[in-house]
Amino acid sequence: MAKLSDIKGFVFDLDGVITDTSVFHSQAWHQVADKVGAPWSKELEDGLKGISRMDSLEMILKAGNLQDHYTDDQKVDLATEKIQTT
To answer: What is the DSSP letter of 28?
Structure first.
């Protein structure tokens, strides 16, 4: 067991406690969906919460039946573009 004096710092995840960034993530994913031509719905929006960026992108592409239209590198680019808009 670690001693208190061994602890150098703490990390707190306060998203949802002090602030809620989900609206910004939703807006950014909506922009990605619009860009690739995938339909946006409340069900899709809700399904994206709490999953990884790449899994979210796959869900968006699947919603538009577009999962085979992009290479892995293009998918990484789309996911990276989402990060830059958040």
So the answer is: H
Given this model, what pLDDT does residue 17 score?
76
The token pair that represents 60 in the structure block: 């968006």
Enumerate residue ranges in the chain where pLDDT < 70: 15, 85-86
Is 34 annotated in the active site? Answer: no
- Tell me the C-alpha distance between 16 and 64, whole Å: 30
Q: What is the pLDDT of residue 86?
A: 63
Quick one: pLDDT at residue 18? 81
Catalytic residue of the set 13, 68, 72, 73: 13
Q: What domains, with CATH codes, occur in the chain?
A: 22-85 (1.10.150)
What are phi and psi for residue 15, nearest 5 degrees?
-65, 125
The reply to whether 6 belongs to the active site is no
Task: Return d(Cα 3, Cα 23) in angstroms, integer.
Answer: 40
